[in-house]
From TrEMBL:
<feature type="compositionally biased region" description="Basic residues">
    <location>
        <begin position="20"/>
        <end position="64"/>
    </location>
</feature>
<feature type="compositionally biased region" description="Basic and acidic residues">
    <location>
        <begin position="76"/>
        <end position="89"/>
    </location>
</feature>
<dbReference type="InterPro" id="IPR029044">
    <property type="entry name" value="Nucleotide-diphossugar_trans"/>
</dbReference>
<protein>
    <recommendedName>
        <fullName>Glycosyltransferase 2-like domain-containing protein</fullName>
    </recommendedName>
</protein>
<feature type="domain" description="Glycosyltransferase 2-like">
    <location>
        <begin position="158"/>
        <end position="318"/>
    </location>
</feature>
<dbReference type="InterPro" id="IPR001173">
    <property type="entry name" value="Glyco_trans_2-like"/>
</dbReference>
<dbReference type="Pfam" id="PF00535">
    <property type="entry name" value="Glycos_transf_2"/>
</dbReference>
<dbReference type="GO" id="GO:0016758">
    <property type="term" value="F:hexosyltransferase activity"/>
</dbReference>
<feature type="compositionally biased region" description="Low complexity">
    <location>
        <begin position="90"/>
        <end position="113"/>
    </location>
</feature>
<feature type="region of interest" description="Disordered">
    <location>
        <begin position="1"/>
        <end position="138"/>
    </location>
</feature>
Length: 799
C-alpha cells in the first residue's frame, strides 16, 4: 500500500542561522535554493520507507562564496593564531589570553561559533543596526541624495568623533572627514556635554550631510564618549578621531583598503604634528612608522610600543567586538586599550604614509597633554602606564622592558616634575603610584635609560624630594652644555658623569654610569683643493672627556667606501699620550685640551690607481678604542665651505672627486671614474663634432646616442654613427658628428657610446670649457652635469 506523503513545506531560515543582511562592496546575484526532496534510505524500493520532512528548523548556515566574506577575495590564508584571534577565542597555553579588564560582548561566543561554521562574520551578530530605509522613501529624495542615503545605510567605515568645548577646531576636523576619498562612511559625533558652540557646529554638519549624525550625553570624559559612539556605529570597520585634529584626505581610503587586501585586524599609519598651520613629523611615531609593513605584529615590530593613540588606526569591527575593547573613564585612555589591541590582533598593517594630523593647540591650556603637571592628569597618566605594564607582563613579557624604558623617559619624568611641585596628600598619592610602577622595573631596564633620567627617577623612587628638585634644576640648566665624564672603577673601564650626588651612598653605584651614552665626535673644519690634491683639516674629540683620561687609547682614521662596513683605506693610527703635545711620529696630528687635530691629504690616500674600484661614495671615519670604549663616528663638515661650490674636482684623465654633505651633515667624497669621456667638442655650422676615448675594445662600427635627461619630458632617443680606432688593448678613440638639426624638443640630453652588443657607456665631459652651438634658430650649450657626464641643453633667452 502506497504511503501517503505530506507536501514539503519550506520554512524561512532562522535569522540566527543565516545572520542579518549586510551590504558588501560588490553585490552578487542571490543563490538559488534547491527545493527540499525526500531522501531515499539505502536498500529500500520506490515508495517504501518513512515519510521524510525537510530539515529546516536547525539548518546549518548557508555558506557564501569567499568573495562575499570580509577579506575573502585575495586574502592570504591566516595561520592558526590569526584564526583564533579573529574568532575571539582565548589563546592556547603559552600564548596570549583575553585581556582581564576588557568586557566581553554577550553575543561574542555565539558569533565566534557561527563564524567557525561558515556563517556570517562575528560583527554581524552584535547590536541591531538601524533599519534600512525603504526604497520608495528614498526615491522621494533627489536622485543624487537618494543614492547617497542608500549607500550609507550599512556603511563600510564608522568614524567616532567625541567633542567637548572645541568650537574653535571642530569644524576643521569634520570638514576633513567629509572630504575623505573614501565616501562610504558614517560619522558619529558625540557631544560630551559641551558648554560652548561645538554642538551647533556638529548639528549643522548632521543637517547638511546625511553621513553625519550627532549623539548627546552628560559629560563623563573622552573614554565613555568614544564607547557611546562605538556602540552606535554600524560600519564593518571602526575609527576614532579627536575633534581638535585633522584627517588627511586619503587616510581612511588607505587604511580600509589595506584591511580589505590583507585581512589584518587593524591598520595604522604615520602621524604629523600640526602647529600654526605647519606640519612636522611626530617624534613618538618616527621609529614605528619609518617603513610600511603589511601583516606584521607588535612582537615582530617592537617599535609599535610607542604607538599608543587610537586616532591613527582603523579596526576591523569583528575584532573590536570579539575582544570586548572599551576605553576607561579617565584621561590618557588610549594606551591601556591600544597596546593590548596590538598584542591581541592577529596581524597589523603599518603604513609609513601620514594618516593623521595631531594638533598642538595654540590656546595653550585646553589640551590634556598641555596640562600635564596637574595632579589628576599625572594620576591618570600613571594609572594608564601601570595598567598597560600589567597587561604586558602577563600576555607579552618580552614587550614590557621597552614599554618600561619608554614610560620612564616620558611618563615617569613628568611624575618627577609634578612631585617636586606638589605638597601634602596629592604628592603622597602620586609617589605611591610612581614608586609602585618603578618597583616592577628590572635592573637591565634601569641601566638602559640615560644616566640623568636614571638619577631623577632613583631620587623619585627613594622619595628624596629636596634632592630631586636639585637634580631637576641641574637637568634644565645643563641641558645645552657638556658635563665632565671620568673613567672609574677598579679597572677604569666604566665612565661616570659629574651629575649631582655622585658618590652618594644612598644611590646605587651605577646611577651616574654613562659608558653606553658616550659618542665620539669629529668634524672636518676646512677642505682645500690645491695642486691636484684634496686636503682635510679637522678635529676629533670625546665630549666631556679630558685628553689625559684617554692616554693609552688607540685612535684610527680611515676612508670607508659606502658605509660603516664598506671597504676601508687606512689614513693612520696613533696611540694617545697624556698632555697637550704634537705627535712627531704622525705627520699632521696634534693634540690639545680641545681634542685631537688632523691635516690629511685625502687625494693621495684614495686608491685612484685602480679608478674603477675607487668609484663610489667615501666618508672619513674615526675609531677610538681603549679604557672600556669602542667608539666610531663619521666626520661632519660645514655646508658653507667654499669647496662645495666648485663642483667636481679633476684628479686625472676621466677621474674626479666631488665633495658633498650628506645626512646629518656627514662629509661625503664621491669619486667618479669614467669608462668613456669626450675630450674635445667643436661647434660647426649645423652641429657638433666630438672626440674622446673609451676604456674598452670597441668594434669599428659604433654609435653615439643622445638620451633624454629626464624621461618625463617625453623626448625620443636619437643616435649617430661614430668612427672608432684602437689605441692599445683595452683603449680606443672615437669621433662622431652630431647634427643639431636632428635633435627633437627637450630641455636636456645626455650622451652615451653604444656598440654592437648593445652595451651603453655614459660619456663624461673631460674638458674645462663649455661649448655653444646653434641650428634652426635654436641655441645649445654643451656642459658637464653634477656627475661629470656630457649634457646638451637648449638655451632659451628671456627677452
Amino acid at each position: 500500500m502506497a504511503v501517503r506523503r505530506r507536501a514539503a513545506v519550506r520554512r524561512p531560515p532562522s535569522p540566527l542561522a543565516l545572520g542579518p543582511r549586510r551590504r558588501t562592496a560588490h553585490r552578487h546575484p542571490a543563490r538559488a535554493v534547491r527545493p527540499a526532496v525526500r531522501r531515499r534510505r539505502p536498500g529500500r524500493g520506490q515508495g517504501a520507507g518513512r515519510r521524510h520532512r525537510p530539515h529546516t528548523r536547525h539548518r546549518r548556515p548557508v555558506r557564501r562564496p569567499a568573495r562575499d566574506l570580509p577579506g575573502g577575495a585575495g586574502r592570504p590564508r591566516a595561520d592558526a593564531r590569526d584564526a583564533d584571534r579573529r574568532a575571539g577565542q582565548d589563546r592556547p597555553a603559552g600564548g596570549q589570553a583575553d585581556r582581564p579588564r576588557a568586557r566581553t560582548a554577550p553575543d561574542a561566543p555565539q558569533a565566534a561559533q557561527d563564524q567557525e561554521e561558515g556563517g556570517r562574520p562575528a560583527q554581524d551578530l552584535r547590536a541591531p543596526r538601524r533599519p534600512r530605509r525603504h526604497l520608495a522613501a528614498a526615491n522621494r529624495c533627489p536622485p543624487g541624495e537618494a543614492r547617497l542615503r542608500r549607500s550609507i545605510d550599512v556603511p563600510l567605515l564608522s568614524v567616532v568623533v567625541p567633542f567637548y568645548n572645541v568650537e574653535k577646531y571642530i569644524d576643521a576636523c569634520l570638514a576633513s572627514i567629509a572630504a575623505q576619498t573614501l565616501t562610504d562612511l558614517e560619522v558619529i559625533c558625540v557631544d560630551d556635554g559641551s558648554a560652548d558652540g561645538s554642538a551647533g557646529v556638529a548639528a549643522a554638519w548632521a543637517a547638511r550631510d546625511p553621513r553625519f549624525r550627532m549623539l548627546t550625553r552628560p559629560n563623563a570624559g573622552l573614554g565613555p564618549a568614544r564607547d557611546t559612539g562605538a556602540a552606535a556605529a554600524t560600519g564593518r570597520y571602526l575609527a576614532f578621531a579627536d575633534s581638535d585634529d585633522v584627517v588627511p584626505p586619503g587616510a581612511y581610503d588607505l587604511l580600509v583598503g589595506s584591511l580589505e587586501r590583507t585581512g589584518s585586524d587593524l591598520a595604522c599609519g604615520n602621524v604629523r604634528r600640526l602647529k600654526d598651520g605647519r606640519l612636522t613629523q611626530s617624534w613618538a611615531h618616527r621609529e614605528a612608522f619609518a617603513r610600511t609593513l603589511p601583516r606584521t605584529h607588535i612582537t615582530e615590530h617592537p617599535g609599535l610600543v610607542r604607538d599608543r593613540m587610537a586616532w591613527n588606526k582603523v579596526f576591523r569591527r569583528a575584532f573590536w567586538d570579539a575582544r570586548g575593547l572599551s576605553f576607561p573613564a579617565r584621561m590618557y585612555e588610549d594606551q591601556p586599550v591600544m597596546i593590548p589591541a596590538h598584542v591581541l590582533a592577529g596581524r597589523v598593517d603599518v603604513h609609513a604614509e601620514p594618516v593623521y594630523h595631531w594638533r598642538e593647540r595654540e590656546d595653550g591650556g585646553g589640551s590634556i597633554t598641555q596640562r600635564r603637571l596637574e595632579p589628576d592628569n599625572v594620576r591618570d597618566r600613571l594609572l594608564s602606564v601601570a595598567e598597560t605594564a600589567t597587561f604586558l607582563a602577563e600576555h607579552a613579557p618580552e614587550l614590557k622592558p621597552p614599554l618600561d624604558a619608554e614610560s620612564m623617559e616620558i611618563d615617569l619624568l613628568v611624575a618627577a616634575e609634578a612631585a617636586a611641585l606638589l605638597t601634602g596628600p596629592d604628592r603622597d598619592r602620586l609617589l605611591d603610584l610612581a614608586c609602585g610602577y618603578l618597583d616592577g622595573v628590572d635592573e637591565t631596564t634601569w641601566r638602559a635609560v640615560p644616566a640623568l633620567t636614571r638619577l631623577r627617577l632613583r631620587l623619585l623612587h627613594r622619595r628624596m624630594i629636596p634632592e630631586l628638585r636639585s637634580a631637576l634644576a641641574f637637568a634644565e640648566r645643563e641641558a645645552a652644555t657638556e658635563v665632565r665624564v671620568r673613567p672609574g672603577g677598579m679597572t677604569r673601564r666604566r665612565w661616570y658623569a659629574d651629575y649631582p650626588l655622585r658618590g652618594d651612598r644612598r644611590l646605587p653605584a651605577d646611577t651616574h654610569d654613562v659608558t653606553g651614552e658616550l659618542r665620539l665626535r669629529g668634524s672636518v673644519e676646512r677642505l682645500s683643493f690645491q695642486a691636484g690634491g684634496l686636503r682635510a683639516h679637522g678635529r676629533i674629540w670625546l665630549p666631556g672627556a679630558a685628553l689625559d683620561d684617554l692616554a693609552g687609547a688607540r685612535l684610527k682614521l680611515a676612508l670607508r667606501q659606502g658605509g660603516r662596513d664598506g671597504r676601508a683605506v687606512p689614513l693612520g693610527q696613533w696611540r694617545l699620550a697624556p698632555g697637550a703635545r704634537e705627535y712627531a711620529e704622525a705627520a699632521g696630528i696634534t693634540a690639545d685640551a680641545e681634542g685631537i687635530g688632523f691635516d690629511l691629504d685625502l687625494g693621495r690616500a684614495l686608491p685612484l690607481a685602480d679608478g674603477l674600484k675607487a668609484e663610489g661614495a667615501w666618508q672619513i671615519r674615526a675609531e677610538l678604542e681603549g679604557h672600556g670604549l669602542t667608539l666610531s663616528a663619521g666626520l661632519t663638515a660645514p655646508a658653507s665651505d667654499p669647496v662645495f661650490g666648485k663642483g667636481p674636482l679633476r684628479l686625472g684623465a676621466g677621474l674626479w672627486i666631488i665633495p658633498c654633505v650628506g645626512n646629518h651633515r656627514r662629509l661625503r667624497l664621491r669619486v667618479r671614474c669614467a669608462g668613456a669621456a669626450v675630450t674635445r667638442c667643436v661647434p660647426g655650422r649645423a652641429g657638433l663634432t666630438i672626440s674622446g676615448w673609451v676604456r674598452a675594445d670597441v668594434p669599428p662600427r659604433a654609435e653615439v646616442a643622445l638620451l633624454p635627461q629626464d624621461d618625463a619630458t617625453g623626448g625620443k632617443e636619437v643616435a649617430f654613427p661614430a668612427e672608432v680606432g684602437r689605441v692599445r688593448a683595452g683603449m680606443c678613440r672615437f669621433t662622431a658628428d652630431i647634427p643639431l638639426t636632428g635633435i627633437g624638443a627637450g630641455p636636456a640630453w645626455r650622451f652615451a657610446l653604444r656598440h654592437r652588443d648593445a652595451r651603453t657607456v655614459p660619456l663624461a665631459f673631460d674638458s674645462a670649457e663649455h661649448v655653444e652651438g646653434e641650428a634652426d634658430r635654436r641655441r645649445f650649450v654643451v656642459t658637464r652635469s653634477g656627475n661629470c657626464n656630457l649634457v646638451l641643453r637648449e638655451r632659451i633667452d628671456q627677452r
